[in-house]
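lol forgot to send this yesterday, sorry. struct tokens for the thing we talked abt
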């Protein structure tokens, strides 16, 4: 126990020395640590609201709900698939942020404010491509802002929520289109069961194998993945 406390004291003293030092190397290290802690603290919000993650995970959840397969695929599988698809879609944007903001900042070629401006532009360009003008105008009107002439004049505080609700609308539209064919199967099975007088038998038990069979025959996962990719990376 004492050894552990001593190690914690040494780490705290080291951090204090790093942040209180006047040496240029210490200042650079402290800036990097502060930047890293800031990014890590808001990383979940950035990933969910400023990338393609929200649309992907909502659509995949609609697929599982329409199939009525309970927890199959599990949440871990859906979230993992959504994460890797997000990294694939956002790779060009993240690379641009790294080249224009992070690397120059780490090489002490630009200041922290300049790095923030340089990093925000690629993200703004990505979000602006998938944000409806109606949604953006909603937040800008409530903020009493004038119509911007360029994308640089649009603050992230208005662009991010506008992008989020635009993604929600798009995801629910795709979810509705996914639901329709499976709903038809449920209705057909329910009608057959009622005509046979088997009212006590849940239609879901009978329709589930047919929905899975239809989904497999049309290669559903391929079609859904392709539709999601086409929405962000059209060929």
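and heres what i got for the seq, position by position
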């Amino acid at each position: 126990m004492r050894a552990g406390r001593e190690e914690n004291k040494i780490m705290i003293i080291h951090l204090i020395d790093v942040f209180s030092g006047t040496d240029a190397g210490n200042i650079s290290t402290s800036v990097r640590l502060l930047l890293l802690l800031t990014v890590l603290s808001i990383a979940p919000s950035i990933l969910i609201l400023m990338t393609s993650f929200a649309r992907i995970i909502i659509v995949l959840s609609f697929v599982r709900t329409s199939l009525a397969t309970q927890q199959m695929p599990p949440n871990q599988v859906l979230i993992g698939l959504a994460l890797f698809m997000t990294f694939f879609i956002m790779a060009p944007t993240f690379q641009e942020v790294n080249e224009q903001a992070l690397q120059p900042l780490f090489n002490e070629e630009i200041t922290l404010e300049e790095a923030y401006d340089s990093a925000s532009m690629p993200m703004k360009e990505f979000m602006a491509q998938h944000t409806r003008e109606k949604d953006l105008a909603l937040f800008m009107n409530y903020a009493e802002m004038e119509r911007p002439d360029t994308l640089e004049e649009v603050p992230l505080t208005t662009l991010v929520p506008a992008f989020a609700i635009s993604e929600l609308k798009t995801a629910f539209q795709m979810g509705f289109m996914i639901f329709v064919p499976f709903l038809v199967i449920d209705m057909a099975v329910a009608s057959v069961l009622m005509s046979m007088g088997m009212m006590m038998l849940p239609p879901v038990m009978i329709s589930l194998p047919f929905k899975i069979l239809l989904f497999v025959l049309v290669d559903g996962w391929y079609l859904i993945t392709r539709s999601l990719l086409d929405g962000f990376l059209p060929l």
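The mean pLDDT is 77. anyway ping me if u want another try
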